[in-house]
Amino acid sequence: MAEEQHFGDRGQDRGQDKDNIRKQGSARGRKVKGRENDSREFTDREDERSMEELHRAAMEKEEKIPEEGNERGPWWMYVIVIGTLAFGFFYMGRYLGEISDQPHVLFTRPAPPDVEEVDLDLMAEGRRVYTRLCQSCHQQDGAGVQGAFPPLGGSEWVIGNPERPVYIVLQGFQGEIIREGVTYNAVMPGFGRLLSDEEVASVVTYIRNSFGNEAPDVLPEEAAEMREASDGRTSPWTEPELQEFIDQ
Q1: Residues 46-79: pLDDT tens digits?
Q2: CA-closest candidate to residue 186, choices 145, 130, 135
Q3: Is 195 within 8 Å of 169 (Cβ atoms)?
Q4: 3-class secondary structure, 178
Q5: How far apart are CA 193 and CA 241, in angstroms?
Q6: Cα angle value 228/230/235 (rounded, 5°)
Q7: pLDDT value at position 115?
C-alpha cells in the first residue's frame, strides 16, 4: 500500500510539472508577442533610412546660410551711398560748367571788370612799412637807440640825396658811423627781397617827411632804377662803400 501511495504521488508530481512547463511556455509566448507589439507600436519609420538621408533631412530643416559676399548690408549704408551719389551729381552739374565739343570754351575767362586805379598814398603806406620793419630799431619817434641805431630826425643821410636811404633799405648797412659826436655801430639788414618798389619808395618818403624832416618824395620808378643799379650787391653797405657807389 505504501508503494501504491508512492507511485500515485509521483504521477501527481509529474502532472504538476507538465502544467508548470505549459504555463511557463504560454507566459513566454505572451512576453515575446508583447515585445513584438511594442516594437511595432513605437518604431519610427525614419529610423530605417540611411545616415546620409537623415543628415540631408536635418540640413533641409535648418535655415540656409547666405553665401559669402551676398549678405545684405545695413539700411543706413544704402542711405549714405545714395546721398553721396546724389550730392556728387548735384555738385558736378552745378560747378562743372558746360560740356562742349570745343575744349577751349571751358577755359575761356570773362574779361576782368574795369578796376579804378587808386593813387598810391606814399605816406600812409610808408607808415605801415616803418611800423612793421623799422620801428623796433629806430623807435616810433625816430630817435633810434644810443650807440646802436642813429636817429632819423634831422639826419642829412635821410633828407639829403635820396639814393643813400634807398640803397640802405635795399641792401642794409653795417660798420661804425659818427653823428654829432656819438658813435653808432649796429648791423641793419636789407629788405630788398621783402619789399616791392612801391613799398621801398613809400617808407623812404615817410622817414624823409616825418620826425621833423621835410624832403621831396621818392617815386616807385626811382626806387626801381636804384634796385636795378645795385642788383649785384649781396652784403650790407659800409659808409665808404656806399659813398663811393653813389659818387661813381
Answers
A1: 456 677 776 777 777 666 666 666 667 788 888 8
A2: 145
A3: yes
A4: strand
A5: 21
A6: 140
A7: 55
Read off the C-alpha cell for 146: 644810443
Q: Does residue 58 sit within a domain?
A: no
Name beta bridge partners: 185.
176
Domain count, the chain: 1
Does residue 134 belong to any structural domain of this protein? Answer: yes
The answer to whether position 112 is within a domain reads no
Q: Residue 158 is part of which domain span?
A: 122-243
Q: Which of 140, 145, 169, 141 is nearest to 157 (CA)?
A: 169
* 150 or 119, higher pLDDT: 150
Can you say whether residue 212 is alpha, beta or left, with left for phi > 0 and alpha for psi between -120 and 50 degrees? Answer: left
Q: Which residue is associated with the grid cell 653797405?
A: 237
Q: What is the dihedral angle through the alpha carbons of 173, 176, 182, 184, rounded to the nearest 10 degrees? A: 50
Strands 172-173 and 188-189, bridge-based pairing: antiparallel
Residue 70 lies in a domain: no
Domain of 159, CATH number, reads: 1.10.760.10
Q: Convert the pLDDT of each residue in 14-52 to its tens digit.
A: 555 555 555 555 555 555 444 555 545 544 554 566 777
CB-CB contact of 244 with 237 (8 Å) = no
